[in-house]
Amino acid sequence: MSSFIKNIIRFVMFILFQVYVLDKISLHQMLAPYVYFMFILWLPFKMNRTLLMLLAFLLGFTLDSFSYHPGFHAAACVLIAYVRPFLINLLIPQEGAETNYDEPSFKSMGGMLPYLIYAAVLSFLHNAWLFLLEAWQFGDLWYFFVKTFLSTLVSLLLVLITELIFTRKQKFRTNTV
Amino acid sequence: MRNIFLFVRRYFNLLFFLLLQVVSVYFIIHYSKYHQAAFGNTANQVTGKVNTQYSNIERYFHLKKTNDSLIKANEGLYNKLKVDFELPDTSTKAVIDSIMIDSIMQFKKYTYLAARVVSNSVSAQNNYIVLSRGRLRNLRPGMGIVDLNNAVIGITTDVSDDFAVVMSLLHKDSHISGKLLKGGETGTLSWDGKEPNMITLTNIPKSAKIAKGDSVISSGFSTSFPKGIMIGTVEAVYKEVSTSNFKIKLRTAANFYNLEYAYAIDNSQQNAINNILDKIKDKH
Lengths: 177, 284
Known about the structure:
The structure holds 2 protein chains of 2 kinds.
Chain A: H1 3-22, H2 38-41, H3 49-67, H4 72-91, H5 97-100, H6 112-138, H7 141-165
Chain B: H1 2-10, H2 12-29, H3 31-36, H4 38-61, H5 63-78, E1 110-120, E2 128-131, E3 144-146, E4 152-159, E5 164-168, E6 177-180, E7 186-190, E8 198-205, E9 215-218, E10 230-239, E11 245-252, E12 261-267, H6 270-283
Antiparallel strand pairs in B: 1-2, 1-12, 2-5, 3-4, 3-12, 4-5, 6-7, 6-9, 7-8, 8-11, 9-10, 10-11
């Protein structure tokens, strides 16, 4: 399956899962389970940064359309798409490892820990920026801190579960014959 | 000039990032303008259709609850029937004033229009409800929306051809006025963005006598709701330190977790009243 079609299917599935499963669960007002931004986590290493941000904006905007108040998720998604390349450069184990695999995963990032740091930082940034924009209107900072912290834990747990359920088979590619 | 081009090329990603952030924040602040824009309308139609498909499935699982609530609503209506009332004195003759029986509906001010709820949220900070009835079937922005048991749930903000977006009571910009049934004091309702089914009533003077469990009804001052529609019951009363007002926590009469159907209230005088108000605003 080409990377293009694969990503379209992922886009639709993540949005539907977020809107019709996770958003319907209201555990507590301090816990907002978000996992749809894994679409951005899973985009190919080699993707152009402008395209990356544009796709992230589209993803956030689509989710916003379902909540009838656009802008919140779009802003959060663009932020993590912007930070993603810097983070990958920091975390990838050796020079050129990103050319051996297509997408970030446990294997291509060189173990579970770097990948989890990658996921944790991005989900923290996503939630923090999202809740900050929301809290700005209400002006309640304490609420913002607690909600960001707890929701990031939930997001991370969901990322881990998703990774374990949907194991992505990735070919090792190399230039050396 | 060349330096500007070099600068843009060098920092293109950062500039593009900032541009997208600005666009997003613009949408957040000016969301009402977004709704008026053409693509906002299209987005409503598309997400409305997807939500209808989902609610077709979900509706099935709520049939029991919907039935119970309809039975309750019916009970209330039966209790208002004329046959339920008997005149206290049999020697008086009951005369029905035939003039006030409004057979051609010329005195009717409020009309209830039924609609199905296709999408609803309680967990966001700004919650919207979507109804599968739009402009083509007589819904307009600014109409009051009540649930099956005639309790306030919101006001329509935006209407497309087949769908209407309702600003729920659980929205930071929702400022419906509420009135204490017992004393008649009027205040403003708002939501603090935390607990669904709990809203705040402010601007009630400390001279008012309030007890837990008191009813709060719509004031009838806005054009959206008739007077006396149930909003909620008093859960707790706090004294505001800096003002001479109470801050009252209400439990909403409508349960926002399981809305299945709703009624839009069409006020036939709404346009007339709003026109006068607009004229006054223009003058000053």
